[in-house]
């Protein structure tokens, strides 16, 4: 390879360094965030090649393996044109060009290999939330040199520890008005096909809880070889994956998942969602968008964030698992009513909201809870007196399991595990909680009028939970770690829960207990390395420097 150079620490090879000796400040400095997860153990030094652009302009490409970045430098004798990419942002390299539609690659039917050209497929942030792919062609002087770089980069990407190697994709063929399979084929699959070393299997779900049962009954060798589960559907399908993985993991670790006090074990796999449902709340919260290609990019490059989970128990038995939002009262009744109008699609929620508002359900019951250490407000200073008769108030010592209680008539009882971004709450439903901050937001809205309830829901949609709380600090919202609810037994209808978009029946004479498990699962989501993309500098006739941090 006459035009390639390789230097190691301590070697005598001279090359253009991209790490300045002295700190550099000013407008011409490009800050490249360093991501430790992409560092390849045992690899160091620089690999350098003089190449050409498709327009025959001379360039130099440097692969800095100490910092895992690529530098593309235009060499014209008098000025320098410099661009730097992180290894995190490189999806793959190919020896053939790709057809790319609006930043989304298309799997070629018959790839046409170029003679000396290597195509770098980088992902980039198109706007505030959406990620796309672009291709940079680099022409080497010999085919053998091109093949060396292709092999080197392909091997390096396969060794990046956080990139998935083996995933199962569950598709709900009825999701997204029957378009889930088309969404996967047109906007997602090409990213997985391009990722070096990634094997993926597609499973079409045939019934409710199919995905959960598939995971629980999976052979041990297949389960241990997995490192990712992806759902293409709504929040309900993702909940099946979550439930199956947690049940499987606790069973294998001999943990009693039915006991709320059990410290649960984190599954060894990560979860991903391609939103193809009605609300797509979880994926919209984690990625700040329901864009399908963005979700695919984060899965392919192995982005990772940790997410809280809430378990629901009755009689010391696990009945449901949530990683989104749990609501009772008006919101629960809206979901129950909307089930009769599924043929209307997402508009059914507006129709059922109107019907439920006219009916105006009120439920009387007891809420008990324990605060997180992050909560600074004392509920005793805010909550009105309990309705009489209150069974807990009559006890001299109260309830040993919870620190606070309130017996009242409720229009809403809402618990958010994550901020809960939906098309109806674009600014998020939760005032305080984050994706994995170790708290639940518990909002208690007592009996209010129809008009007040309409105003309340309108403000939540317009401002989000956080701004609404700032506008009205008297709202009863607390950061908790566990809580319970029990309806009064003399009510004919005990109500239902809206748990991650699915109906959960409230037992008439028994309480439900809700327990937080902080950062229990890992998600293919925005991590620290990807939230703020590297700024690009296209500088001509001025010297540019690169600073690593």
Task: Give a written overview of the molecule.
The chain is of the alpha+beta class and 549 residues long. It folds into 3 domains: 46-159, PH-domain like (Roll), CATH 2.30.29.240; 166-303, Rossmann fold; 314-518, Tumour Suppressor Smad4 (Sandwich), CATH 2.60.200.40. The chain has helices at residues 143-158, 175-178, 180-187, 189-194, 210-216, 220-225, 235-252, 281-287, 292-301, 330-338, 347-359, 450-471, 528-531, and strands spanning 4-7, 29-32, 46-52, 58-64, 69-75, 80-86, 90-94, 99-101, 104-106, 117-125, 131-139, 166-171, 199-204, 228-233, 270-275, 305-314, 317-322, 325-329, 363-371, 404-416, 440-446, 476-487, 496-499, 502-505, 512-523, 545-548. Strands 12, 13, 14, 15, 16, 17, 18, 19, 20, 21, 22, 23, 24 and 25 form a 14-stranded mixed β-sheet that branches. It holds the Pfam family DAGK_cat. Residues 162-316 form the DAGKc domain. This is DAGKc domain-containing protein. InterPro entries: ATP-NAD_kinase_N, Diacylglycerol_kinase_cat_dom, Lipid_Phosphate_FormReg, NAD/diacylglycerol_kinase_sf.
Short description, anyone?
The protein is built from 13 helices and 26 strands. It has helices at 143-158, 175-178, 180-187, 189-194, 210-216, 220-225, 235-252, 281-287, 292-301, 330-338, 347-359, 450-471, 528-531, and strands at residues 4-7, 29-32, 46-52, 58-64, 69-75, 80-86, 90-94, 99-101, 104-106, 117-125, 131-139, 166-171, 199-204, 228-233, 270-275, 305-314, 317-322, 325-329, 363-371, 404-416, 440-446, 476-487, 496-499, 502-505, 512-523, 545-548. The two termini are 33 Å apart.
């Amino acid at each position: 390879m006459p035009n390639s150079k390789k230097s190691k620490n301590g070697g005598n090879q001279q090359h253009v360094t991209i790490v300045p000796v002295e700190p550099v400040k000013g407008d011409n400095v490009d800050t490249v965030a360093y991501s430790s997860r992409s560092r390849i153990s045992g690899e160091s030094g620089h690999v350098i090649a003089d190449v050409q652009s498709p327009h025959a302009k001379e360039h130099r490409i440097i692969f800095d393996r100490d910092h895992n970045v690529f530098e593309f430098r235009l060499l014209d004798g008098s000025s320098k044109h410099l661009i730097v990419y992180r290894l995190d942002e490189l999806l793959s390299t190919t020896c053939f060009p790709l057809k790319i539609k609006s930043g989304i690659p298309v799997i070629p039917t018959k790839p046409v290999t170029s003679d000396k050209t290597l195509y770098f497929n980088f992902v980039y942030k198109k706007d505030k939330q959406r990620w796309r792919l672009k291709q940079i062609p680099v022409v080497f002087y010999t085919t053998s040199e091109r093949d060396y770089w292709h092999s080197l980069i392909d091997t390096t990407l396969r060794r990046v520890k956080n990139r998935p190697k083996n995933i199962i994709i569950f598709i709900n063929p009825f999701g997204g008005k029957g378009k889930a399979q088309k969404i996967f084929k047109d906007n997602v699959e090409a990213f997985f096909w391009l990722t070096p070393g990634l094997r993926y299997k597609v499973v079409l779900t045939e019934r409710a809880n199919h995905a959960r049962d598939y995971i629980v009954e999976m052979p041990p060798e297949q389960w241990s070889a997995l490192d990712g589960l992806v759902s293409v559907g709504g929040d309900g399908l993702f909940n099946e994956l979550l439930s199956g993985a947690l049940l499987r993991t606790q069973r294998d670790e001999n943990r009693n998942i039915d006991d709320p006090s059990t410290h649960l074990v984190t599954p060894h796999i990560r979860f991903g969602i391609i939103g193809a449902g009605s609300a797509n709340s979880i994926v919209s919260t984690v990625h700040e968008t329901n864009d399908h290609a963005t979700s695919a990019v984060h899965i392919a490059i192995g982005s990772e964030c940790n997410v809280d989970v809430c378990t629901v128990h009755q009689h010391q038995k696990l009945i449901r698992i949530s990683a989104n939002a749990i609501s009772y009262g008006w919101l629960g009744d809206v979901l129950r009513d909307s089930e009769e109008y599924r043929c209307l699609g997402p508009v059914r929620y507006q129709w059922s909201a109107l019907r439920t508002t006219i009916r105006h359900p009120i439920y009387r019951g007891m809420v008990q809870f324990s605060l997180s250490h992050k909560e600074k407000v004392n509920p005793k200073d805010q909550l009105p007196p309990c309705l009489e008769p209150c069974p807990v108030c009559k006890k001299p010592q109260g309830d040993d399991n919870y620190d606070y209680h309130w017996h009242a008539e409720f229009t809403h009882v809402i618990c958010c595990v994550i901020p809960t971004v939906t098309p109806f709450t674009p600014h998020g439903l939760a005032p305080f909680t984050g994706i994995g901050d170790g708290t639940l937001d518990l909002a208690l809205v007592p009996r209010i009028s129809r008009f007040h309830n309409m105003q309340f829901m309108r403000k939540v949609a317009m401002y989000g939970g956080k701004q609404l709380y700032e506008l009205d600090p008297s709202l009863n919202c607390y950061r908790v770690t566990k809580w319970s609810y029990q309806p009064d037994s003399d009510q004919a209808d005990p109500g239902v829960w809206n748990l991650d978009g699915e109906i959960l029946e409230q037992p008439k004479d028994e309480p439900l207990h809700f327990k937080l498990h902080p950062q229990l699962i890992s998600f293919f989501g925005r991590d620290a390395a990807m939230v703020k993309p590297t700024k690009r500098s296209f500088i001509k006739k001025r010297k540019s420097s690169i600073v690593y941090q």
